[in-house]
Amino acid sequence: MRVTDFIKLDEQNGRNIIFLRVDPEDISITLSEIIDALSDLSWISKFDKAYLRQSYRTRAEATVKHICQKIQDGAASGVYGDAAEYIVSEVARETLVKHLMYKDIPLGELFKEQISGNPGFDYFTANLSDVIIFGEAKYLASKNAYGSGMGQTARFIKEGRDKADLVDIQNFFSENALTGVINGTKGFSIAFSAKSTASDVLVENIKKNTHFAELSSYQELIFVAVNI
User: Fold this and answer.
1) In the 8-state DSSP scheme, what is residue 43?
2) Which candidate, 86, 94, 92, 176, places its Cα nearest to that of 139?
3) 3-state secondary structure at position 139
4) What gap in Å lies between CA 65 and CA 35, rounded to an integer?
5) How far apart are CA 195 and CA 192, in angstroms?
6) Max alpha carbon distance in the chain (Å)?
7) pLDDT tens digits, the chain, 228 residues: what are they?
8) What does DSSP say about strands 220-227 and 16-23: parallel, antiparallel, or unpaired?
9) Is 190 exposed, middle or buried (0-12, 13-18, 19+ CB in 10 A)?
10) Which of 132, 110, 101 is nearest to 40 (CA)?
């Protein structure tokens, strides 16, 4: 997969608002790479406490099996359905890590409590200033999903889901980054399935969205359009 567009929407007053577009290119290769990435549990070995390693492994192994099966079923049928949001999440997560050099944190589903359908944000990272970025992924089969992603992110902020997620992500981030969230220093990423709409049109429509002003008030706001 490759980043085809990188557009800066704003970088004033300490804020960084950017738009990236990602083309998976050969979808079969991308799906294979996603399965490999999800199945790589080497991140667990970084924890020095045995009970943490065992706990994360127990949670992750069941979730990986569940997600990979959905992706494989979608690849076989050509209808990705429930797997699509996992694909969008993982493509976005990898893009932030590889293209922006942000912190590499496994997909939220791998370490949260339930095997699937966990409430709260889908993926997490931290930027080069150690600010935590909370990511939400949305897929719609018939249209660009940025509106759905922006609406849900705004709702999650009002409900305090970012703060609620700190319990789950505390072992992956510094004390300073975690405390920053409580004090309002944080960012958000919205990953969404994109159709054939040109990137400049997507950007203009995103800026017109009713939630844009609210979401852009934080330290960072990253949109990741995934061609799927």
Assistant:
1) G
2) 86
3) coil
4) 10
5) 10
6) 50
7) 789 999 998 766 667 999 999 998 777 777 888 888 888 888 898 888 998 899 989 888 888 888 888 777 766 655 566 678 888 999 999 999 999 999 999 999 888 865 455 568 999 999 999 999 999 999 988 899 999 999 999 999 999 999 999 999 999 999 999 999 999 999 999 999 998 899 999 999 999 999 999 999 999 999 999 998
8) parallel
9) buried
10) 110
Tell me how far apart the alpha carbons of residues 120 and 144 are, in angstroms, rounded to a whole number.
22
The DSSP string of 99-120 is HS-------GGGTSSSSS--SS
Tokens, residue 90 = 């993982």
Name the one residue in this structure whose structure tokens are 């590889």: 98
Angstrom CA distances, 6 to 16, 24, 68, 88, stand at 13, 15, 30, 17
Enter the tokens of residue 211: 């939630």
β-strand pairing of 16-23 with 2-10: antiparallel
Long-range contacts of 205-208 (CB under 8 A, 24+ apart): 205/144, 205/146, 206/9, 206/19, 206/146, 206/150, 207/9
Determine how many CB atoms are found less than 10 A away from the CB of residue 90: 27
Angle at CA 33, nearest 5°, toward 32 and 36?
90
Nearest-angstrom CA–CA distance, 161 and 157: 6
